Amino acid sequence: MLKQISLGRYYPGTSLLHRLDPRAKILLSFFYMVIIFLVQEPLPMLLLGLTTLVLMLLSQVPMRHILGSLKPILFILIFAFVINLLTIKGDELLTVGPVTISEQGLETAVRMAIRLMLLIISTTLFLTLTTTPILVADAIEHLLNPLRRIGFPAHEMAMMMSIALRFVPTLLEETEKIMKAQSSRGADYDTGGLIAKARGLVSVLIPLFVSAFKRAEELAIAMEARCYRGGEGRTRLKVMRYTPMDIVFSCLLAAGCSAILLVQYL
Amino acid sequence: MRKNIFNLAICAIFCGLAIVGGKLVIPAGPIPFTLQTAVCFLTGLLLGGRRALAAQGLYLLIGLAGLPVFAAGGGPAYVLQPSFGYLPGMVLAAALIGHLADRADPQRNGLKLFSALAINAAGLAVVYLCGTGYLYVLKNIVSGDSTGLVRILQIGMIPYLATDGLFALLTASVAPRLRRATRRYFLA
Fold this sequence. Notes:
The complex is a heterodimer of chains A (266) and B (188). By secondary structure, chain A is mostly helical. Chain A has a domain at 11-145 and 243-265. Chain A has helices at 16-19, 22-38, 42-59, 63-68, 74-87, 103-129, 133-144, 154-184, 194-225, 244-265; strands spanning 92-96, 99-102. Chain A is flat, with a radius of gyration of 24 Å. The model of chain A has no long low-confidence stretch (mean pLDDT 84). Chain B is an all-alpha fold and 188 residues long. Chain B has a single domain (2-187), classed as Arp2/3 complex 21 kDa subunit ARPC3. Chain B has 8 helices and 2 strands; from the N terminus they run αββααααααα. At the A-B interface, α2, α5, α6, α7 and α8 of A face α1, β1, α2, α3 and α7 of B.
């Protein structure tokens, strides 16, 4: 049960997409998302699909990995496709028994499905697959830094993000340990009804939450012992800098997307 | 130990617990359930309003930033999932539960079982309100197929009522002792 959890299927590599500044990647993935929503017509959509394909090739991540990111939403994808296909009324295209498929229905269904697929692929490509979680947290801190003027705790938030991600494997291990310990005392997690199962889970949750407090205390003492006092004046081992490559790539992508939009509106 | 460093650490670790709780899928009956709501209740009951808001809000942010911490992945596109509304609902609910719990029991020496239960019920109502409201808006306005309110409640609330209600009861029953046991971390 616990083994199946994988957080951030980062695929190690040195491709162009991997080397891009993480801040640029976050901004580009938002920009790309907006473009995906603006594109309506079939030809621009095809061009956008090709652009996404180029990005996929540039990342040098195996196709299998990229397409694997669609698996969790496969059900919703098919469900939305069928619902759109069957419920939208319009010019009749095909009638089988009581089911009528309209031209507009097919169009909307295909458009929605492609859009959703492009959306998931592009965001996992920019963020999940080619950027480590810690870099994402650092980049978010940088991007939110301007908000510090109005009192937003950007540094604290990024620090908490890194700690949370760092502790996920630890907490999982701990959960497993507690479950085994409770099993040896006679707890049963696999049989019994809903109530029995939920009660069994509570016997896991309580020690887990109590130990979370202990861990937080230890961590806070350790941080204080190392003179942690927030982000003010803190220096970094790796300083993020926009390189010419980042600027060229961002401009190229922006130009490409604008061209696609021009094709649509002209 | 300075207060704010501990606060930072405890919120971060509770965010980690939210990630773990959301990923643990327990197969039971027709609908598998996760521990997400249980973690949300406990976060509120143990941390108080502001810290609970930080811990659960951070979870939401991490997911939206592109890390696959939600049940079906993550990333900004997750906003389009019909079930997305429950996540901000959970954030608000944890904050509300925390605020109410700290008001009902400011000295952390024993929340009454009945008030803990009532607080959890209020939190659960917030979760469902956000979740089904979002589902309704997404179905009717964004994707355009009209779905009745009854149908929305049938797919978005009824199936989860049993497990969520059970978790509300169970977490409320352990909250008084846990609040007392963790008293020293907050009220020195």
